[in-house]
């Protein structure tokens, strides 16, 4: 369960959150809102990659001193080194977070043939696959996916849904939060939809 308490966030004159309070208690949650309403910003703050002007977050009743160790996120907002190949980026992440090389994820997303392609040269769909691989390989209890089905082919969407179906089996206190504009397919896989 994640609790958002008194969240305030604005960019210049654009107020995104003003004294926002919410409890996300479902293990699988889909946040739906129009563009610009703060979906990605909320995920980035929950992951510890962006700071609120005011407010706090509780994960299962406690604050996270090091969110990067218990939270994994995939988002276009995260800038990856586009001069490196996908394999180099994955290798770097494997060493940084000390996890196994994601052979099954690479194969499952049909990404093998793109490993030696510079990130900047990947299509938007393959960039999305790389982002998802980087998040999923960490096996963190909290998984945040920003528009995970955007630009993915149908086969990859089905593979992702199967992964998400099994993701929390060994994480009884874990949680998956995604953002999307078309939640129907995720609702079919047990996600509860909430609006911002």
Can you describe this structure in just a few lines?
The protein is of the alpha/beta class and 196 residues long. It is 31% helix and 26% strand.
Q: DSSP strand (E) fraction?
A: 25-35%
Largest sheet: 5 strands, parallel
Give the helix proportion (percent range). 25-40%
Radius of gyration, in Å, reads 16 Å
Order of helices and strands: EEEHEHEHHHEHEHE
How many strands? 8
What would the average pLDDT be, to the nearest integer? 94
Spatial order of the strands forming the largest sheet: 5-6-7-3-8
Number of helices: 7
Report how far the terminal alpha carbons are from each other.
17 Å
Low-confidence parts:
none
Shape: globular
SSE-based structural type: alpha/beta
Describe the structure using short key phrases:
196 residues; 5-stranded parallel β-sheet; 3-stranded antiparallel β-sheet; alpha/beta
Task: Describe the protein in words.
The protein is of the alpha/beta class. Helices cover 31% and strands 26% of the residues. The protein has seven helices and eight strands. A five-stranded parallel β-sheet has the order 5-6-7-3-8. Strand 1 and strand 2 form a beta hairpin. The two termini are 17 Å apart.
SSE blueprint:
Blueprint: E1 2-11, E2 14-24, E3 28-32, H1 39-46, E4 54-59, H2 67-70, E5 71-74, H3 86-97, H4 103-108, H5 124-136, E6 142-146, H6 154-167, E7 175-179, H7 184-187, E8 192-195
Parallel strand pairs: 3-7, 3-8, 5-6, 6-7
Antiparallel strand pairs: 1-2, 1-4
């Amino acid at each position: 369960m994640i609790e958002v308490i008194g969240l305030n966030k604005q960019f210049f004159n654009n107020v995104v959150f003003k004294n926002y309070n919410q409890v996300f208690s479902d293990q699988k949650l889909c946040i739906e809102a129009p563009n610009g309403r703060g979906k990605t910003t909320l995920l980035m703050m929950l992951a510890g990659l962006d700071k609120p002007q005011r407010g706090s977050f509780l994960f299962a009743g406690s604050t996270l001193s090091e969110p990067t160790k218990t939270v994994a996120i995939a988002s276009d907002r995260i800038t990856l080194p586009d001069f490196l190949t996908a394999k180099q980026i994955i290798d770097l992440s494997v060493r940084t977070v000390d996890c196994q090389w994601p052979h099954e994820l690479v194969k499952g997303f049909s990404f093998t043939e793109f490993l030696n392609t510079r990130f900047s040269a990947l299509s938007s769909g393959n960039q999305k696959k790389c982002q998802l691989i980087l998040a999923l390989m960490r096996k963190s209890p909290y998984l945040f996916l920003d528009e995970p089905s955007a630009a993915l082919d149908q086969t990859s969407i089905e593979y992702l849904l199967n992964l998400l179906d099994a993701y929390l089996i060994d994480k009884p206190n874990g949680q998956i939060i995604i953002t999307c504009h078309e939640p129907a397919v995720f609702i079919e896989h047990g996600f509860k939809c909430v609006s911002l």
